[in-house]
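Objective 1.3, modelling of assemblies. Example input:
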Amino acid sequence: MGAAFRQLRARLARTVLTVSGIAIGIVALVVVGSLAEQLHTIVSRSTALNRGAIFAIARGADLTSGDAKARVDRAIGQIRAMSGVAAVVPEVIVPYRPSGASDRFGPPALIFGIPAAGRALAGGTLTIGTGRDLRPDDVRAAVVGGDFAAAEEAPVGSTLSLYGNSYHVVGTIAKSFTLFDAAVVVPFASAQALLRQLAPPGSARLPNAPASALMVLARPGADTGLLAQRIRFLTGLEARDPRSVSANVESTTRLFDAIIFGAALIALVVGAISIVNTMTIAVSERTREIGIRKAIGAGDRDILAEFLAEAVAIGALGGLAGIVAGVAIVAVIDTHNAARGDVELFAVTPRLAIASFLFSVGLSAVAGLVPAIRAARLAPTDALRRVA
Amino acid sequence: MNGDRGAAPLVIARDVARVYAAGTEREVRALDGVSFALERGDYVAIVGESGSGKTTLMHLLGALDRPDAGSISIDGVDLGSASGGQLKSLRAKRIGFVFQGFNLVPSLDALENVALAAHYAGVPRALALRRAAAMLDDVGLSQRAHHRPTQLSGGQQQRVAIARALVNEPALVLADEPTGELDSQTANAVLELLERLNRERGVTLAVVTHSEGVYRRARRVIRLADGRIAGDEALARV
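Predicted structure (tokens):
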């Protein structure tokens, strides 16, 4: 391999150009690949967080309006009575900003209120990063996501204003790559108070315990599709089978993967063509040298290995340069985003880096194969007749 | 000394023919009915005009090509029936090449150029480098072992090429116009080196040349004309 690098150094300008071609392709692969990796992380963490729960949301008549308490209580009772249901947890989810508008990249910031009993079930995959979790006796206390804390400058100990009400930030949630990174979690009763505050005029006489959604946890082995159908039929609430939701998400991420990897592949194929070109020129220039090598005892396999080693060396250099440049680019973008409290877009995982490197080397070997075979098959007598 | 395989000649050529573009209008009979034998330890010059078949004969003697008719055997290996692997092994272990243009690999230093031939003969790297160093010492270039070809004079490059040709202790060394690109003083030094190696190591030396000054130094001259042997004579050393 040392001899291959020396051959490449001997033709430095050409080597740099060819290596750059491969490196650009690998940069594209690393950037879009890390985007896909991050997307997969977000999807898988969010799926894990929901634990296959069915979310039942009011359609038309709001759970928050009119005889909301009766409606919520009745729905909870009906759903609990269904076979296959393990628990029903009322939730309050309201937007952090009244308009729902967001100046950050990523999901909108939301305020969650989940009863203490439900938090243990629903929030099992979330952990506290700094400070502490909410306690049952907490009033006007909040735990915020890391991205939210950065974006709204709301660290532990600070005071947060939610629709004119002051909340004391007691903890932050460790990075979870879910909606909760941009969320504010407040005690359930506090969230219900916010919901009442936000209720439209005319529904002033709100009951004490409204909710904006019901999280239905199914027993293991229960048919969630059938459960969702029953919830829709019996309660009139909108309920979707989490399996069909995740199937939709998966097919969307698969399509996304195909598009971005396709784009990266095109960039790499262009790089590979430049390797074919470079190696073809190298074989042509060194035809007499090939003849000399054969005359002094090199076999076809020796020549094949020497030229393949050069192509592989180009791939290895291009791969390394591309990975370093790609990591640098995504680090700059993510650092910028993190400072604004935006979602981190990229995840350069070890498997992505290793796969990119191996792909670069493998593609280069394939690209170098045809010129290398041509070199190996040169008749030594023809090669020696070539004027040096 | 190279491995002496008894009294049998090192090279036996019988009615050798080599025809290019056979059966076409451009057909060329480069060699036509050539027969000769080279004894072990021989020092022979192969001479002739351009197009007389010298290069074709050298390619056959170097096991780089096979005859179209007749037979040629080198160190007991018949070129016509040998496998590709056998020819490669013959080139790597039993034959050494010295070319007119030196033809060293430019990216390798002198030591590595010599070791390359040992590497192709299957010698492990450390041993190949030790043998190459000893061979460079023998041709008086141990001080230049780590110089690239471009950092060496023509005479020094040719001495590296000679060291490369001899590192595997071949039975036969083929030198194609070995002094063609050297001044007369350097040419004389290179020929003296080849002749000393022929004398001391018993290696068979075949020099292809146009130069009368070169071929007059051999013990035997084979003259080629139009692909045939026009003369084969023993010379008294001057």
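Chain B touches chain A at residues 55, 59, 62, 64-65, 84-85, 88, 91-93, 96-97, 99, 101, 103, 105-108, 116-117, 120-121, 164-165, 168 (CB under 8 Å).
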